[in-house]
Amino acid sequence: MIEVKNITKTYKAGDIKFNALNNVSFSVNDGEFVAIMGPSGSGKSTLMHILGALDSPTSGTYFLDNKNVSTLSDDELADIRRDKIGFVFQSFNLLPRTTVLRNVMLPLVYAGIHSAERENRAKNALRSAGMDEEHFHHLSNQISGGQIQRVAIARALVNNPSLILADEPTGNLDSKTGEIVIGTFQKLNEELGRTIILITHEQEIAEHADRILFIKDGILIEDRTTHQKRMAKV
Ligand SMILES: Nc1ncnc2c1ncn2[C@@H]1O[C@H](COP(=O)(O)OP(=O)(O)O)[C@@H](O)[C@H]1O
Ligand SMILES: [Mg+2]
C-alpha cells in the first residue's frame, strides 16, 4: 500500500538548510499496524504529513496504492485525502459548541453525502470508536479528554478510509484512557482490516502495533516486529 523511497525533507531558514527527514525508505502492507517512535523533533510529524499527502518531500518518492503521490495534481491529492485517508491530528481540531455527532458528520458534508446518510455513518463511526450513545448530542467542549480523542478517531473513520494516520493520539491521556484508545485502534486494525500508522513516544503504546519504526534526527534507525505480532503468528 505504502512505499517510501529515499525521502528527504529539507527546511530552509535563510542560508541554513536542515533535513527534517534524511533518506528515509520503508514500505507498509495493507492491513499492517505500524507505530512510529522517536524523540521530539526527530521528524515524525513531518513524515506523517507526507504520508497523508498534506506535504511533499524535497526529494525521494512516495507511492500510495501504486500511485506516485509526488506527480499528482492538487485536486487528485484532495481526492486521496478525502477518500483514502483518515487523520487523527495531534491537536484534535474539534469544533467547539458543536455536538459530537455534528463534528463527525462534517467530513461527509465536504464529500457530498446527503444528510440522513451522514447521520447514519457518523453514528456508526462513533460506535466503532467506542463512544457511548448518550454523548452523541453533547457539545464537544463539554466532554472529557478521552471522549474528545474518540470523537477525533470517529471523525477519521467516517469516510471509511483504508489508511488511518494518527499523530500522538494518546499524548495527553492518562495511561488507562490511553490503553482504551489504543484498544480502539487495535480493533479497527484486527476486525476491520484498516491499515494504521500511529506516532507515539510511549513504548507501551507502540508495543500494541505489529511493527515499530524508530526515527532519530530524521533518519530511520530501526524497523522491528513487536512481540504482539510474533505472538499473533504463533
Ligand atoms: N515548517 C517547518 N519549517 C521549519 N522547520 C520545521 C517545520 N516543521 C518542522 N520543522 C522542524 O523539523 C524538525 C522535525 O519536526 P517534526 O516533524 O514536527 O518532529 P516530531 O513530530 O518528531 O516532534 C524539528 O526540528 C522542527 O523544528
Ligand atoms: Mg510531532
TrEMBL record:
Entry-linked Gene3D superfamilies: P-loop containing nucleotide triphosphate hydrolases
Superkingdom of this protein's organism: Bacteria
Annotated protein name in UniProt: ABC transporter domain-containing protein
Keyword entries, A-Z: ATP-binding, Nucleotide-binding, Transport
Ranges where the ABC transporter domain occurs: 2-234
Source organism of the structure: Candidatus Nomurabacteria bacterium RIFCSPHIGHO2_02_FULL_37_13
PANTHER family the UniProt entry points to: ABC TRANSPORTER ABCH.1, IMPORT ATP-BINDING PROTEIN
One GO cellular component term noted in the UniProt record for this chain: plasma membrane
Keyword presence, ATP-binding: yes
Any one GO molecular-function label of the UniProt entry: ATP hydrolysis activity
Pfam families referenced in this protein's UniProt entry, alphabetically: ABC_tran (PF00005)
InterPro entries from the UniProt entry: AAA+_ATPase, ABC_transporter-like_ATP-bd, ABC_transporter-like_CS, ABC_transpr_LolD-like, MacB-like_ATP-bd, P-loop_NTPase
